[in-house]
Amino acid sequence: MKLLLTFSRKGQYDPGREPVIARVVKETGVLINVEKANIDSMAGEVLIDVPDADAALVRRRLEEMGVSVRVMENAVARDEAECIDCGACISICPQEVFSFDPGWRLRVNAERCVLCGRCIRACPHGALSQQE
Amino acid sequence: MEKSLDLINARIRDGSARVVTADEMPGIVDELGEEGALEEVDVVTTGTFGAMCSSGAFFNFGHADPPIRMERVWLNDVEAYAGIAAVDAYLGATQEADTKDRPYGGAHVLEDLVAGGTVELRATSRGTDCYPRRGITTELLLEDMNQAIMVNPRNSYQRYNAATNTTDRTLHTYMGTLLPRCGNVSYSGAGTLSPLVNDPGFRVIGSGVPIFLAGAEGMIVGEGTQHSAGGGFGTLMVTGDMKRMRQEFLRAAVMNGYGVTLYIGVGVPIPVLDTRIVRSTAVRDEDIMTEVIDYGTPRRDRPSMARVSYADLKSGSVEIGGETVRASSLSSYRGARAVAQELKAWLEAGKMELALPTRRLDPAKRAKPMRETAVAPRVSDIMNRQVISITEDEEIRVAAKRLLKDETNHLPVLDGNGALVGIITTYDVSKAVVNDGRLKQVKDIMTRKVIKTTPDEPVDIAAQKLEQNNISALPVVDATNRVVGILSAIDLGKLFGGRRRR
Lengths: 132, 502
Ligand code: SF4
Ligand code: SF4
What we know:
The complex is a heterodimer.
Chain A: E1 2-8, H1 20-28, E2 33-39, E3 43-49, H2 55-64, E4 68-72, E5 76-78, E6 98-100, E7 106-108, H3 118-122, E8 128-130
Antiparallel strand pairs in A: 1-3, 1-4, 2-3, 5-8, 6-7
Chain B: H1 5-14, E1 19-21, H2 25-40, E2 43-45, E3 48-51, E4 56-60, E5 72-75, E6 78-80, E7 88-92, H3 106-114, E8 119-124, E9 135-140, E10 147-155, E11 162-164, E12 171-173, E13 176-178, E14 185-187, E15 206-207, E16 210-213, E17 216-223, E18 236-241, E19 250-255, E20 259-267, E21 269-271, H4 275-281, E22 289-294, E23 304-309, H5 310-314, E24 317-320, E25 323-329, H6 333-348, E26 359-360, H7 379-382, E27 390-391, H8 396-405, E28 410-414, E29 420-425, H9 426-434, H10 442-445, H11 459-469, E30 473-477, E31 483-488, H12 489-501
Parallel strand pairs in B: 1-2, 11-22, 14-25, 27-28
Antiparallel strand pairs in B: 2-21, 3-20, 4-7, 4-10, 5-6, 5-8, 8-9, 10-18, 12-13, 15-26, 16-17, 16-20, 17-18, 19-20, 22-23, 24-25, 28-29, 30-31
Helix pairs in contact in B: 2-4
Bound molecules: iron/sulfur cluster (2 copies).
């Protein structure tokens, strides 16, 4: 399951300095996969992937450390009324989230998405968006 | 055996015509042979659904009271061409709205109208004795117009080049997003279903032939602009009544970093009159070849990186220089199929009859490049030939002196053999000074990845390099990487300033 962590660097546990994720891994023994991280001087955003069964535990521990956690179920969402199944999103996605089914309809495998945003900009029909 | 069009139309009328879509035809010919297929099949329907920039519509708005001769016209803030008659205008799909708060253009206006939405018409005029009014603003629905006639100067390309990008940066083109270093291939066209691929000799596709255009029955006007069938790039000019079109087959689009375009579904029915037509409609994706062109070359003639078939492209990846590169389309194959299938349903229901061309399109014609009476200015025309340079082993102090003395901000750095190996700027030198003078030589501070140009490069391309890399000068090198000049933003300013004054 993907969790989007956001934090302010002014908090008590600054993940820019404090090894928050490493600490959670050590304490819980859950292996966390960091898929994307944007950290600047004021705030940060980290996308992690954790086994579904451990998600609640990881989430609780992170929240105790002052990190806000959001579950990203459909990281990238497709508006079926706008999508015309052109396929322009397929070859530019680094995670191979998109493919065609045998009827040439677009198939979206959203669990693999790392929210790079490329497809959202590249879709000629404005059919893709990031889950709010 | 040959079949007459009258026979086929009679069968369409009595509901006994056998209609198949173009992707079914190869299998039928395999099974029945050419003669058998000719006997069995009466019509082959084709279809394509993709970006067709060269589209738009003529509108007649009717007269207002007092009347106005509209000189400039906007529909939802998108300017239409009004230099036609008092209340007529042509709105092009790629024209963008004057207010740029969102990506919106002619294509969106067309889609909004077809979807049944209202559009704001705004027009201005000087006022004449017969047309005294100077301005008007009103809201219109498609049904309020006398005519909304789509006339697309260039639709339904026979085939289209596929695109890739050999440069180090992402390109945003009308062929979509092209990742750096041949990271992907983008293509357009429906392959075996594409109308013109099924009649490359233009025997039954020509002026006056009825077609499917965005959900309505339309017609082929004649050859499209840039028609170049001799090289496999034929095009069609088509027309149809917008009032009968459907949003499902007419969709506005925005190519990120490029602009607005319109996706349209076009389908042409092909009467199966003889075995030559059987053969041409039996074309497979494997037989339809196209080139993968490097859009990273900013010139008209771009190099081809590979020759591939539509079967390769549709498989999702192609080989370029021994590497497998992912390929995806911009046009919708599912949409193309829907066009061909709907056209088939029309014919089976007797809703449309076929006609032969009243005028044939030239199957051998080739489009010419533009005749340019003045050659686009080259870097050598405006570059500064007095280049102050430095060698990589000099001390930074020497570089600083040279920069100061010659009032320049850029020093190309040469190796012992006089070849360009780097560049330093006043900024690099100041940085080195702040660093307590620990760095001693030019080579310690120079930028090694130099953005450069050549004497024969068009100035506009050099200007784009400056802009994209946010730099203010380019060393000009010859084929042996020797510096022959330097081009600065100031040199460019002179040229463009001069151009504008003229
Ligand atoms: S690029 Fe957009 S319209 Fe095309 S298939 Fe992907 S989501 Fe659909
Ligand atoms: S956001 Fe990036 S990773 Fe996610 S689907 Fe789009 S292109 Fe793929």
